[in-house]
Amino acid sequence: MSSSALLSALALLPALSWAGEYRLTVDEVTIDTGDFRKQGIGYNGASPGPVLRFREGEDVTIHVTNNLDEPTSVHWHGLILPYQMDGVPGLSYPGIAPGETFTYRFPITQSGTYWFHSHSGFQEPDGAYGAIIIEPNGREPFRYDREYVVQLTDKHPHSGDRIMRNLKTSADYYNRQQQTVGDFWRDTREQGLAATLKDRLMWGDMRMMSSDIEDVQGFTGLINGKGPEQNWTGLFKPGERVRLRLINSSAMTYFDVRLPGLKMTVVQADGNNVQPVTVDELRIGVAETYDVIVQPKEDRAYTVFAESMGRSGFARGTLAPREGMLGEIPELRPAPLLTMADMGMAHAGMDHGSMSHGDMADMDDSGINHDDMAGMDHGSMSQGRAAELPADPFYAEGSGLVPQAYNDGRFLSYADLRAQKPLYEERKPTREIELRLTGNMERYTWSINGIKESDAEPIRLQYGERVRFKFVNETMMTHPMHLHGMWSILDVGAGQWNPVKHVISVAPGTTVYMETEVDAPGKWAFHCHLSYHAAAGMFRTVIVEGGPEGGDS
Amino acid sequence: MNRILNGLAAALLLSATTAAGAASGAGGQPGDPQQVTRTIEVVMHDNYFEPEQLSFAAGETVRLKVRNEGALVHEFNIGTAAMHEAHQGQMQMMVDHGVIRGDHLNRELMKMDMGGGHSMAHDHANSLLLEPGQEAELVWKFDHADQLEFACNVPGHYQAGMMGGIDVE
């Protein structure tokens, strides 16, 4: 047989493929954080559910059986698949009724770290989440000796339904860091009565408080289901490269993650390889994933410490050469306070209560300029210190939220992210769609372009176009925007090297662009991944028209 | 601009020091092409080497033929772990100053005369800095293997595992 004949014969064989079959049950479970026990929802009898390990090129079949007495759903977060398999009730399918089994079937066309969760009600905050690892077909552009999933969440003693009711009744129900009468007198002493009064009146007009960074405080941070006292531990041999697959499965909480004494080399963001960048600390938005490689060389325990962005809680685990070893647990750093920059003073036509553009002009006349903002910034983080920081273009200039590494080292910015390998050919977008992120904190309404999902028309995209989305955050909260079914190419100004993500975090007072190759027909969800913001209406249905058969709904 | 030049000068002083040390510290020294006993091919990918382990006899002089088949700039550098770590600081500076630009090098900046005979040419005897598609050779005489590694010190690459071990028997 000649070699060309052999090649032809090989070509006739079916491509090497895998077909895996998996089963998940959706169950009522007891969740024990070490701080409290509560009833919740899990998969295969536990929360978090199992780690599903797929392989690129595999055809998966997943049977999901609903053992709850209410409908459920499973969404495969970040996976590219037919929209009927995406698991969003009302868009992909009707959901899974109590006692029923739904069988998902789809090909795995990607690799990396992802996760899955319920897209029904508040089942995800109640515990219905798990991790997905997809092995690549070829070798990875990095090396490691062992790996761990580090899945973070913000477990709250209250059920999701109860939290939403409380937020609707009083938006500051869970804000324990409100400024007190004592703060008022302290600020009056330091800044004078007039300045302090003006500050408080301005925040009042904004229907916001400078401590509005985390809507829902009072949670226990978990790593892989374990509270700080329960101390999730991953073992290593000194000198090994350890890959940590960081996943933020929180309902509401951004975490600042570090391992004191170790540098982290970020090699993946949202499942896609990035050119490696070595940092001391990183901020992981809700629903994002980052894969990092650490190389602990000493024979000692290293703490995995994840402080919430608003410093109201933390998760803690340990990397150690042997079980039972403990690393030092750092103190929580002081809570940041939002500044005038986070109010988005640059925006006209803000949707903050009664505040009009005229009012802002008035404020400018009364002498509030950028220099005076230092005076507004009466928190732990002084303007002077912030001014020394390298500017992070993904925060408003002078923002109280600009992160700073615990050791004054390097803190990961979106601006550091570069795709390891471009996924799409670079081309000009066919059009731009502006999405203003809007809301009224005190009424706890959240919306896009001032309209909540229940009153909104879907966004209609044409198959084959490349759309540029312009996010303008007119609120004072950070919103992790998640488009289902298609990639979000974050514009960091690097052209074809722009990183490819599935969640784009938009800080207060900033405008962020992403582009999407519209290559997946059907009906998709596009929403803020903060559970209570999505439920309040910061959500859009996206309909992709045209394209291959099966796309029409 | 002055500040940038000063930064570059500082980087150069650092690299000059290390390059001088390299000849004695990198498990050997630049070899005489006449003494080469064999040629070994090393391929750079994004971001790993192939092969990832090299073995030599003590005193052997070899020609290392290195080809960058990746889409990013990579370095091939012979040294100890400590030497690589020191060199990584300089490579970070080359990135910060726009000399290494992800998928290409700013050759104009590399050629620029910095005074005192220095440039940003990265022409250390124990290393090669290659753009995608480039190929180059390095002749090295291996004496000993005290924690010797070959590595790419473009920021993040070594940490992500773009390195390999060297045995000298």
From TrEMBL, chain A:
It holds the Pfam family Cu-oxidase_2. Residues 34-137, 180-310, 427-545 form the Plastocyanin-like domain. Coiled coil: none annotated. GO terms for molecular function: copper ion binding; oxidoreductase activity. GO terms for cellular component: periplasmic space. Keywords: Copper, Metal-binding, Oxidoreductase, Signal. It comes from the Bacteria. CDD domains: CuRO_2_CopA (cd13874), CuRO_3_CopA (cd13896). Residues 1-19 form the signal peptide. PROSITE patterns: MULTICOPPER_OXIDASE1, MULTICOPPER_OXIDASE2. NCBIfam families: copper_res_A (TIGR01480). PANTHER family: FI03373P-RELATED, MULTI-COPPER OXIDASE. This is L-ascorbate oxidase.
From TrEMBL, chain B:
PANTHER family: AURACYANIN-B, COPPER-RESISTANT CUPROPROTEIN COPI. Gene3D superfamilies: Cupredoxins - blue copper proteins. Residues 1-22 form the signal peptide. The keyword Repeat does not apply. Residues 20-80 form the EfeO-type cupredoxin-like domain. This is Uncharacterized copper-binding protein, cupredoxin-like subfamily. Keywords: Copper, Metal-binding, Signal. The lineage of its organism: Bacteria, Pseudomonadati, Pseudomonadota, Gammaproteobacteria, Pseudomonadales. GO terms for molecular function: metal ion binding. Coiled coil: none annotated.
